Amino acid sequence: MMRTSLPAWMDIGLLPLINILAAFVVAGVIIAMIGENPFVALMVMLKGAFVYKGALGYTLFYATNFIFTGLAVAVAFHAMLFNIGGEGQAAMGGLGLGLVALALDPVLPAFLVVLLAIPMAAVFGAIWGLIPGWLQARRGSHIVITTIMFNFIAASVMVWLLAGMLMAPGQMSPETRSFADGVGLAQMHVIFNAIGIPMARSPLNLSFVIALGASFAVWVLIWRTRLGYIIRATGHSERAVIYAGHSPQRIIMITMAISGALAGLMALNEILGVQQRVILNFTSGYGFTGIAVALMGRNHPVGIILASLLFGALYQGGAELDFEFQTITREMVLMIQGLIILFSGALAYMFNPVLEKLYHLVVFARQEARGDG
Amino acid sequence: MTSAAGVAEMPAAISLSGICKTFGAVRANQDISLEIQAGSIHGIVGENGAGKSTLVSILYGFYTADSGSIQVFGEDISIGSTAEAISAGIGMVHQHFMLVPTFTVLENIILGSEGSGGLQRSMARAREEITRLASTYGLTVDLDAIVSDLPVGVQQRVEILKALYRGARILILDEPTGVLTPQETDQLFEILRSLKEQGVTVLFITHKLREIMAVTDQVSVMRGGEMVAHRNISATSPAELAELMVGRPVLIEGIWHEASPGNTVLAAERLGLDGGGAPLIDEVSFEVRAGEILGIAGVSGNGQSELLELLAGIRVPTRGQITINGHSISPDQPASPSMIRSLGVAHVPEDRHAMGLVLPFSAAESAALGYEHTPEIGDGFWFDPARLNARCSRLMADFDVRPPDPALKSSLFSGGNQQKIVLAREISAKPGLLLVGQPTRGVDIGAIEFIHRQLIGLRDQGCAIVLVSVELDEILSLSDRIMVMNGGQSMGIIDRGRADARSVGLLMAGVA
Amino acid sequence: MADLWLQFVLTIDATLRVATPLVFCAMAGLFSERSGIIDISLEGKMLLSAFAAASIAAITGSPWLGLVCAVVVSVCFSLIHGFACITHKGNQVISGLAINILASGLTVTIGIALFSQGGQTPFLGSGERFGPLILPFADAVRAVPVIGVIYAEVISGHNLLVWGALFSVLVTGYILTRTRFGLWLRAVGEKPEAVDTAGISVVRLRYQAVIIAGILCGFAGAYLSIAHGAGFVREMTAGKGYIALAAMIFGNWRPVPALMACLMFGFLDALAARLQGVELPGIGLVPTDLILVLPYVLTVILLAGFIGKATPPRAIGVPYIKER
Prior knowledge:
A: mainly alpha, C: ABC transporter involved in vitamin B12 uptake, BtuC, 13 helices, 2 strands
């Protein structure tokens, strides 16, 4: 990453905000071009994301997905690894969780099944991340290409299984039978209502709490454990890691496994929290959004949670836009997302020279004022 | 064209006057004046950092001199770019070849100078021209060979042909023999003589005195950014050149005192390391005892860096054996860096930016590198920043690191303070053997003295120290015994009493 | 027996049709990556140009205008990618990904604005797309045993762009190996320093490469919506851009091997379609999903070095910074 001569608060706070603003401005121009008022659209989005009944719940529900996939990308990024395979790892997580649930729910009580299914989602995701990690570490295969391929392979596997072996008997659509009653994660509005706090209906469920827990766990891992220290060192300098007595190859594999596990946990939100059966394509692009979230959140759990909130609001607000405008659909969100990735990722330092000049101008002006005053 | 005898009447091929170039605080070239006779082979010698590369870069258009004038064949010119240098007839053979490895020799030579017309026709034309050039200058190359398949010596010939094809009348070779075997070096000299016979002027940059004596007609010596002498080869000797190159040693007085060495801590027997071409290390044997400093002298690139990495466990020896405190390491029984650390060995690496520190980390985190598992820093797999910072503060106080801020990013410390952090980390582990490479590279004078005192102090406490440095005065200042390396081999081990700048310098320059 | 032959020939015929966009994109990726710029955005550029072609064809009634517009749009986005990667030395993978996601969103958004059909473009009539080129005597020759069908189905009946794809392979090969530009292009992807010290502009070369990649992706997209298909449908590229990327890697960044890979992957696709729901003796229902996943699996195996070696351009993905 390039170093700037800007103070830290501008580098971490202001520059990303300006990048997001740029993305929104371009989006606004396009919205105007298709004949709608961008400011009205923005208001609709905000209301849809936060104000309407149940809106916040939906926003947080989507955010949960992004927290998991964002954490996955971020952990890998700390080792300078580009994990694009979040989609596939999440899908595999869903598979793992589904397999456990379907196998055990006739036999074990619901909460035990859930307790066993959750780690299995992580394990399956970890394996799906470990394989490309191994390929990179031991065979030199570029992790970007392999993870892209593994996304497609995972999708194919899911189709094959869900339309074949795992398909619910008697059904035509590719999905498993529903899990037994109680095999799922309770929805928040149910919990809150049960303890007397009114909360509107939404799919927000306990996975959100698990996601927050995972965020904390990732923070601890990266900044409070030896392993995290070595992972970060590997990302900066493999030579230093060798000097310190570790094997960069091992670290790469471990990191990808952890990354895949986090992405796998995303399945909890959709499958245990809402669907209670395994369906096709429940990942629907959330893996890629995770990349945007990690970029914006600067690979730190706090930033990721905030960025996830933003994207959650975008998705939910986008649904509202779709609802209220004839001319706008959810694809608008994809457009904004692409613009955000473009400005925050590829063109991240484009505004840097302008900011630097402004900053130095202000500093200079201040010095002049103090000198004369 | 003209024979060697007629050369003296021609105008100087290159005439430099008052060339100055400064980079920030570093005066890389100070008031350089130089005349290179046409049709001669002219050498420029000097230690690393003497300013040779900068001068050559100015001649080839990479840099522009801050002041001074350049004349090529009597004409004043300014060389603002590589293209201008080429059109002035200056060609350069870089130290790291600018060849496309997957292309054939022919494709590499014509790249950028294809001429007009279709590629096939250009290549056919070029083939004729290059074959003619090759036979004129005695440079035999297979035009259709793939460059990456060729040995390094032949690749270099391709670089020379490239320059000649573009009409170079002056050929600059920057440290050309660093990558060559002795046979390839001899072949290169033959080619240079052949070029000279054809009237090409050759500028030969090197730090190896043996080569200067073997092939050049005149030599200019650079030291510390200045041009200190010009000589005709026939009128000088390696001894004189060595002394001019190295200058008078600056011994920091009063630091060294008599040592009382104990048992052997480290023994190396007939160590060998292969690396593609000629062996990087060959038949090196030595011992180091507790409480003594063995200095390993040599011009960089002669195997000392690899030797240090071998001892630290970063590389595995191809032949031979290392014994540390009774534990033996050999090709069959390799040891990892962490294993070696557990034997009581500490390592201050030569490259503190790539290995010694993690630059984006805070000083406290860099100070944990290699020691994250120690109880000082954490329990089990935990990593406690509070303990980390406390430890770093202690180290910073003990070693006078400024600013004493454990949270500051490692990259923001000055070179001297960065080195002190690394040293503090390694010394505080109370090692029985310290491996240290280039301890004062890029470090200011005050820190140099501090670091030297630390090393002597450590030695007095009974630690064995292996010190690798290209700074001769540092070696002379600190070592109890000195081993000189050249071409991957040991030129011998001398006791401090019998070592001085001249004798060691000659060994370093490869003159036995 | 004759029926089996017919089935086989028809599958080959379908292969060519399926492989055409792959070939265009693979060649596009080739130009970009041989010059040192990673291009993940083949998918997105293809989608955008498919949309542009169909929209303009629907509005103006001319498939040729649609084709031109497709190329222009694709080149624009190539320039964005180039701007981010070459001028700003940004991360090439992220830039490519951004364009793909942006394409998914932008096409539908503008599509709805223009045509109010949920993102689709209006169905194109035969005058508004590139129709099949029926070669002379095709019908008459069909009856000829064995080779008749080959002429009638495989050679005749394809539209112009299919032949264009095959032609693009020849052109790509010619440019890379027989022109000065191609020599420079190959050099800049392997060792940009050599090109720089020879006085050639690395930046300009790479921009030229991404522009050519844009042109070829434009053809790919136009083919999808106004030659193969009859209009734009959302997400119509369905991962073909990634398969083209895989084919390019499988072909070791060389035109003819990449063409072979495209044909092989296209064949697998056509085969899977043909065998859908078919029961074979001994195997039962054909696992078409497994056939469809083969391109990806094979690419991974190649990258792992288990079948031959993938040798990407040495300097790929690394922004060029002049060493001083």
